[in-house]
Amino acid sequence: MSEQKTAAIIGGGVIGGGWAARFLLNGWDVVVSDPDPEAKRKVGEVLANARRSLPALSDVSVPKEGKLSFAASLAEAVAGADWIQESAPERLDIKHTIFAEIQKHCSPDALIGSSTSGFKPSELQQGAARPEQIFVAHPFNPVYLLPVIELVGVEATLLRARDVLDGIGMKPLIVRKEIDAHIADRFLEAVWREALWLIKDGIATTQEIDDVIRYGFGMRWAQMGLFETYRIAGGEAGMRHFIAQFGPCLSWPWTKLMDVPELTQELTDMIADQSDAQSGMHSIRELERIRDDNLVAMMRALKGRNWGSGELLNAHDVRNKPPLPTGIDKPLTTLERVIPIDWMDYNGHMNESRYGQVFSDAGDVVMAMVGADQEYIAGGLSYFTVSNEIGYLNETHLGDVIHVRTQVLEARGKKLRLYHEMIRTADNELLATCNQLLIHVSLETRRSCEPEGEVLAKITALGEAQSKLPKPASMRD
Amino acid sequence: MSEQKTAAIIGGGVIGGGWAARFLLNGWDVVVSDPDPEAKRKVGEVLANARRSLPALSDVSVPKEGKLSFAASLAEAVAGADWIQESAPERLDIKHTIFAEIQKHCSPDALIGSSTSGFKPSELQQGAARPEQIFVAHPFNPVYLLPVIELVGVEATLLRARDVLDGIGMKPLIVRKEIDAHIADRFLEAVWREALWLIKDGIATTQEIDDVIRYGFGMRWAQMGLFETYRIAGGEAGMRHFIAQFGPCLSWPWTKLMDVPELTQELTDMIADQSDAQSGMHSIRELERIRDDNLVAMMRALKGRNWGSGELLNAHDVRNKPPLPTGIDKPLTTLERVIPIDWMDYNGHMNESRYGQVFSDAGDVVMAMVGADQEYIAGGLSYFTVSNEIGYLNETHLGDVIHVRTQVLEARGKKLRLYHEMIRTADNELLATCNQLLIHVSLETRRSCEPEGEVLAKITALGEAQSKLPKPASMRD
Q1: Which residues contact B113 (CB under 8 A, 6 or more apart)?
Q2: Reading across the β-sheet that carries B68-70, which strands appear in turn?
Q3: Is the pLDDT of residue A2 over 50?
């Protein structure tokens, strides 16, 4: 009982709901207080989104979800709470009223965070019974997925808050001095302001602005941020060189646009020293490769979602797709590809599950050859794999070019058996084999059934032609 | 012969080298012209990075790499080129001299792009023999991975340039009106300027600024950009609501910082209409789920690289990791987890290769139990899987909680045979089985050998205890 922690969520909008979900899915009990009669529905919607996404970030078992309740009053909500999070509208008078009520009823040991994006802690604390108890804990939407939290306030309180946030998987960042809009929102405001000008002046549309970000520097920022990216641009000479090289030429458009701090030797040294402390353990060459591996992995992830830069890659693949194998009376070359970084494991070779992916993709090519393609699937029929027997013969490494040679062993009615050999193209080395059994199914009934029409004719013809070939040498009987 | 295209790269630094790599790896021949005696080495280094990353973005076979050569003169480089890309230093007089020389020797049909980040095409074209031939084609580093290119110049020329860039997998974006620093660099400058102030005023370090970006809004921008993200923040009421809601409160810090366009009804309508055209085909609920799926997929990709927000997730997994199974005389619960979005395939169920991953991870837990862990591997010994026979019994869906029950069938000397059952936890349904054969190997000789010391003792004891159990009911003999 003493172990079970409770968070009080004051204000159940998108941000409050996100906090509630983050705590609940990390095993905390949550009490929500919001006068809005729609609060229950709104929190429920955010929680539904969180339940389908946050647990999937974990590769181990996730904590048992905490208990969610809605309090009749603010007093009731905060009475037993360990963490109290205020996400009320951005009006200082409203927040002051809420903090007064909270402090009347909460434990003096409770942590009271505010989701404010603009106010400084000194403003929030005005007139409070225990000012040091109140601090800024500024999250980013969606709160249940994005981990960073800006903490601003009294250090002793923030250190306790940091421990709590670490425990629920977040990335607390203690801001050294209070400032309007903390850190991140200053950047967001600067970009928003530029974006408004670009639209007003007819330079770019919302779509074009979004595209220039998500197909470009947004991908860099998602994994390295600003300074580590520029450190790479400076090359082996480092940040001092970057500033020396780009400072003067960038100051030209800058000074036309607005005020900028003078790049004195002192400021240059400060940036360079901080960058050394941050990234100096990696050479520029190492940073380049880390960056490239991150970009490839992220873009491949977006490929799976067919979104943004991943959608572009898929379109490019379609354009470069080789024709389907022709000539059904010889083994089929079903696949040719490069082994990417996200397929590697800790042994320094391709993870064994990826062999399954290669063979699954090779099987899909046989499907496409006989017309069991996306359109056929959309019509409610498909082949499902019943079993795979994979033999691992040789290791496969990053960047290897491989191809798959496939032979149809059996194709009768709803049963289809394929034999795949995965071969390293450079030296013709056999890397792995797969004996794949597929069954034709109705996607409606989820039961096996005969293929239909042209697919039946084609798979039968393919099976007959291939059954006359000698069995692959690598096949064990 | 007439099909083979040639790009002339004028200036072989990081940007020029990136262009060279992008063209070469998409099958173009490339001629580099650069007076720097180090140009060959520099282009070679960029090309080495590109070769290990760009092909991995493709899931089909990649084009045969083109021929790379270095020209003795600019005249020689551009003589037969279809595309000429200038990436010289950012000085207008230098660029004018280069364009004059290029136009003296190139085909009038060649496309002449400039990588300039600051100059407008009207400035580049000053005094040119054929001004309409010269345009801005501004890329982002690394050019071989990031696809967006800002195109500014004469429309007819840009339409031809766009076709070429589409063909090499890029995302050309035609800028409607010329402006200093085009589009993206205006954002980069605005953020850079804010960052300099934050460092100078002691608010944040380079590390803290990078962290607030890459653990926060940088992840949003990598997949949706600015406006689609804010459209979601506005909720079902859309962009007009967002601007109405956040306009007034944001204008407060804005106006203290700098000039901002007035949010007139006209500007509000313009933004809202453009946003409708861009994203109106999705409801806000759909956009939220698309965003969340993208974020999960990207963060899971970074997990694989143990970097940024992915490093944080790995640390959180370690904290939440369940203890290793104890009690060796009963079947082992080796794994429990949720099925994530990036494991789904087009049939709407878990891709068959991911079963292999589940069983591979379950096998790793047995390894950890007997002490064949990361440290043991670092010492040069490990188990490799020789074969897997996977039986697929039931479909697995997004968000399913599953666990794996593992039985050691045989553990003698270097040979280890495991039998895994993957079970849906909610209803105890058996989803798949795997008969996994592993062999103990020396990572040095890459040959099989006996396990050593405590690992040998533990695996033998585990094998003996488990061999007394009845065979799993699902096992086919």
Answers
A1: B83, B84, B85, B86, B135, B136, B137, B151, B161
A2: B68-70, B29-33, B6-10, B83-86, B111-114, B134-138, B148-152, B171-174
A3: no
3 state DSSP class of B97: helix
Classify the phi-psi angles of B94: left when phi > 0, otherwise alpha if psi is within -120 to 50, otherwise beta.
alpha
Q: What whole-number distance in Å separates Cα of residue B274 and Cα of residue A380?
A: 37
B386 contacts A386? CB cut-off 8 A: no
With a cut of 50, say whether residue B82 has pLDDT above it: yes
Task: Write down the residue that tokens 């997994």 correspond to.
Answer: B317
Residues of A with Cβ-Cβ distance to B56 under 8 angstroms: 296, 300, 338-341, 399
- The string of DSSP letters for B376-398 reads HHHTTEEEEEEEEEEEE-S---T
Distances in whole angstroms, Cα of residue A296 to Cα of each of A33, A68, A152, B309: 44, 40, 35, 16
Minimum-distance CB partner of A292 among B49, B140, B302: B49
First to last CA, chain A: 61
Contact B258 A259 (CB under 8 A): yes
Contact at CB, A300 and B301, closer than 8 angstroms: yes
Q: What are A112's strand-pairing partners?
A: A84, A134
Taking phi first (over 0 means left), then psi (-120 to 50 degrees means alpha), and beta for anything else, what does residue A27 get? left
Q: Which pLDDT tens digit goes with each residue over A447-470?
A: 999 998 899 999 999 999 998 999
The alpha carbon of residue A353 and the mean position of all alpha carbons in its chain are separated, in whole angstroms, by: 21
* Structural domains of chain A, with CATH: 6-184 (3.40.50.720), 204-288 (no CATH), 322-467 (3.10.129.10)
Lowest-confidence range among A300-309, B12-21, B77-86, B228-237? B228-237
Asked whether A46 and A144 are in contact (CB, 8 A), the reply is yes
Q: In angstroms, what CA-CA distances link A199 with A154, B83, B116, B149, B175?
A: 41, 31, 23, 19, 12
Whole-number mean pLDDT of chain B? 90
Residue A476 has pLDDT above 60, yes or no: no
Helix axes A265-279, A238-257, angle to 10 degrees: 130
Q: Which residues, in sequence order, are bridge partners of residue B30? A: B7, B68
> What residue spans of A306-334 are helical by DSSP H?
309-320
What are B195-251's pLDDT values in tens digits? 888 888 889 999 999 999 999 999 999 999 988 888 888 776 777 777 776 665 555
- CA atoms within a 13 Å half-sphere pointing along the CA-CB vector of B30: 28
For residue A249, the model assigns a pLDDT of: 52
Residue A247: the pLDDT is: 62
Is there a contact between B183 and B60 (Cβ–Cβ < 8 Å)? no
CA A263 to CA A470: how far, in whole Å? 75
Mean pLDDT, range A224-241, rounded to an integer = 80
Nearest chain A CA: its distance from B160 CA (Å): 18
Contacts of B382 in chain A (CB under 8 A): 347
* Tokens 């004028």 -> residue: B10
> Residue A56: its chain B contacts at CB < 8 A?
296, 300, 338-341, 399
DSSP B473: T
Nearest neighbour of A352 by CB, restricted to B300, B352, B385? B385
- Helix (H) or strand (E) run with residue B298 in it: helix B284-305
- Cα–Cα distance between B197 and B126 in angstroms, integer? 36
Determine the average pLDDT of the residues in B112-116: 97
Instruction: HSE, CB side, 13 Å, CA atoms: give it for residue B102.
Output: 35
Distance in Å, alpha carbon of B201 to nearest chain A alpha carbon: 9
ipTM given for this complex? 0.88
User: pTM for this structure?
Assistant: 0.88
Burial of B53 (0-12, 13-18, 19+ CB in 10 A): buried
**Nearest beta carbon to residue B198 from set A63, A183, A398:** A183
